[in-house]
């Protein structure tokens, strides 16, 4: 899993496989953002899951949120080469401020 | 739709130099952010601004200044560039606050010789 000042994690799978990336956070959050960053570009939001939701789906993406264990996951079904990117989770765990805190990220490589 | 523009795209500086990075957004968003991304690391917040002329320090504000002269623009100054420093600086904006989607620019790549 990823958080804060940790180094980027690397994950490599074959095209067509399923993959799950995990994110744990330290304090209560009202929302978990999952961002994707393609090489040479800024991050872009792919799924946002709120504390009153346990699961959210968008196409081949599925995000879960477990507030009791303070963790979230992002799953990709039948990964494709174009899913190769760095994936970040972010939370508003510093509640009351206008900012979110990003995890270190997972570099996902999908091999043909 | 809108866009975030960051200039310059690449910035090469000398040790001790003051360097300014600029960001413009046409989303009409209230909140803007500056992040630093080092190779193999996540994003760390330098400064953010919730409205024109507002400034809030992030976790990494030391060594930087910022300025939000108008709603659409947010600039960041590296007050004294550190030798061999290399990082990407990302600007983002959001409608209001931390529960909203942040829209990112493409980044400014800094190299200090």
Verbal overview:
- The complex is a heterodimer of chains A (112) and B (113).
- Helix content of chain A is 0%, strand content 51%.
- With 112 residues, chain A is mainly β.
- Chain A has a single domain, classed as Sandwich (Immunoglobulin-like).
- In chain A, a hairpin with a 4-residue loop joins β6 (61-66) and β7 (71-76).
- The model of chain A is unreliable at 1-5 (pLDDT under 50).
- Chain B has strands spanning 4-7, 10-13, 19-25, 31-37, 43-49, 56-57, 64-70, 73-78, 86-94, 103-104, 108-112.
- Chain B has one domain: Immunoglobulins (Immunoglobulin-like), CATH 2.60.40.
- Helix content of chain B is 0%, strand content 53%.
- The interface between A and B is medium-sized, with 28 and 27 residues.
From the helix content, strand content and strand pairing of chain B, which structural class follows? mainly beta
- Residues in β-strands, percent of chain B: over 45%
Number of beta strands of chain A: 10
Q: What radius of gyration of chain B results from the CA coordinates?
A: 13 Å
The CATH homologous superfamily name of chain B equals Immunoglobulins
Percentage of residues in helical conformation of chain A: under 10%
Strand count of chain B: 11
Task: Report low-confidence residues of chain B grouped into runs of 5 or more.
Answer: none
Q: What characterizes the major β-sheet of chain A?
A: 6 strands, mixed
Specify the structural class of chain A.
mainly beta
* Low confidence ranges of chain A: 1-5
Number of helices of chain A: 0
| Average pLDDT metric of chain A | 88
> Order of SSEs of chain B, N→C?
EEEEEEEEEEE
Which two chains have the most extensive interface, and how many residues on each?
A: A-B, 28 and 27 residues
CATH homologous superfamily label of chain A? Immunoglobulins
